[in-house]
Amino acid sequence: MDIFPLLAEGFATSLSPLNIFIVLIGVTVGLFIGAMPGLGSVNGVAIVLPLTFVVPPASAIILLCAIYYGAMYGGAVSSILLGIPGASTAVATTFDGRPMAQKGEAGLALIAAAVASFIGGTISVILFTAFAIPLADLALAFGPAEEFALVLLAFTTFVGLGGDDALKTIVMICLGLVLSTVGLDLISGQPRLIFGDLPGFYSGISFLVLAIGVYGIGEILYTIETSKKSPTVTAAKITFSELGAGLRRMNKLWKTMSMGSFLGFFVGMLPAAGATPAALMAYGIARTTSKKSENFGKGEIEGVAAPETANNAASTGSLLPMLTLGIPGSPTTALLLGGMVMWGLVPGPMLFIEQPDFVWGMISSLYTANVAAVLINLALIPLFVWALRMPFTVLCSVVVVLCIVGGFAPSQKIHDVWLIAAFGILGYILRKADYPLAPLVLALVLGPLMEKSFRQSLVMEQGNVFVFVERPLSATFMVLALIFFLLPLLKYLKKPAKKPVAVK
């Protein structure tokens, strides 16, 4: 496939008046969501996802990607002005962004974050465009055995590379798989796990209901409990002369921004890695290689540029395996994957052949969203400062109403509203107990695909369970899955034993 004609057709889709309007709305909403402490791209996408039913699938994915992009930009605002990251992806930005604000350089720090995000976003979108078709061509060789092995690999990468407690991750994956079996059996049509013949469970548990419950209601409950007092907001305004001076300083940081962009993109492609480790790794490398390493942590502009390029590049990189292989690279892309399934689309290589308008419209919209995000971000800084002073009680009321309406609207069943409330309480408890929520949502999304490909493989091979290790591609995925699954155990065994404490 030739990339440029397809990309040109994609721009014809993404630059239609409706989609440009959607990009502007999505980026602005994403910036506000990303700037709010406690909310991030994953919460924003979960809350807005039900509203996408009113537009075509291409416009819906453009809206969600624009929110995702905007939230990645917005996370730096609260990191710099409040010293509280809007999301975990902006934690590294706080290390030097907040000291810069305290030194009276809040405007320069915000310019650095916006420009670095734009550079990271631009380089990663170009890499995305170049790698999309080769990866999709590779995935065309997949059969049911390869699909099952790939889904298994996705689960084990969360266990081995996710950074959370491995046992808790396995528990959440198992819980998600159990929830994915609720409803009617794929082959026999017999009801399964319908909890006392309740009619609402015959259609299964919607991924949307679970996502809104744990990420919307659960996050609000947790934030209400943990937010004891309003933080101090540092005032910031940006003039044209400050903007020019900031751009000249950023021009000297091209090596740092290039490193952050490439590192972020390739780390973002790894399932379960995502933008947070990419930003922390880029900050660490920038600090090690910088000539001003002693200034890091005290308000060094390089310490803002490195993590911001990396987290924006990683957000784009995580979209690539989701679109080409159907394997999400982050919690937010797991929600996007679920959204595509809801709209009747099957992520994977055939999507590039069967739905080129959708795929290339989405890819081209990333270019548009990147430009829109940097312009809106710089223009609306005073508005963000005002929004950060909004009482959280007002914000949480709006979010709760959106969650209930969003959960009820697609199916129009009160059963789903009760489920949202139950999952909200469950999400709050799991968050307090430090259980990762992304594996739970991922397992509910990928569980039906895993079950279908597993049963198809066994039916085609007349019950031969060795089919998963006899085919080269599936055998490779199975070996990688085994390595990732055993990785936490190997780390534990390599850890030096603690010396016994002498009892006096």
Automatic annotation (TrEMBL):
<feature type="transmembrane region" description="Helical">
    <location>
        <begin position="392"/>
        <end position="410"/>
    </location>
</feature>
<dbReference type="InterPro" id="IPR002823">
    <property type="entry name" value="DUF112_TM"/>
</dbReference>
<feature type="transmembrane region" description="Helical">
    <location>
        <begin position="169"/>
        <end position="189"/>
    </location>
</feature>
<feature type="transmembrane region" description="Helical">
    <location>
        <begin position="75"/>
        <end position="95"/>
    </location>
</feature>
<feature type="transmembrane region" description="Helical">
    <location>
        <begin position="473"/>
        <end position="490"/>
    </location>
</feature>
<dbReference type="Pfam" id="PF01970">
    <property type="entry name" value="TctA"/>
</dbReference>
<feature type="transmembrane region" description="Helical">
    <location>
        <begin position="201"/>
        <end position="222"/>
    </location>
</feature>
<feature type="transmembrane region" description="Helical">
    <location>
        <begin position="46"/>
        <end position="69"/>
    </location>
</feature>
<keyword id="KW-1133">Transmembrane helix</keyword>
<feature type="transmembrane region" description="Helical">
    <location>
        <begin position="262"/>
        <end position="286"/>
    </location>
</feature>
<keyword id="KW-0472">Membrane</keyword>
<feature type="transmembrane region" description="Helical">
    <location>
        <begin position="417"/>
        <end position="433"/>
    </location>
</feature>
<feature type="transmembrane region" description="Helical">
    <location>
        <begin position="325"/>
        <end position="346"/>
    </location>
</feature>
<keyword id="KW-0812">Transmembrane</keyword>
<protein>
    <recommendedName>
        <fullName>DUF112 domain-containing protein</fullName>
    </recommendedName>
</protein>
<feature type="transmembrane region" description="Helical">
    <location>
        <begin position="107"/>
        <end position="133"/>
    </location>
</feature>
<feature type="domain" description="DUF112">
    <location>
        <begin position="20"/>
        <end position="442"/>
    </location>
</feature>
<feature type="transmembrane region" description="Helical">
    <location>
        <begin position="139"/>
        <end position="162"/>
    </location>
</feature>
<feature type="transmembrane region" description="Helical">
    <location>
        <begin position="20"/>
        <end position="39"/>
    </location>
</feature>
<feature type="transmembrane region" description="Helical">
    <location>
        <begin position="358"/>
        <end position="386"/>
    </location>
</feature>
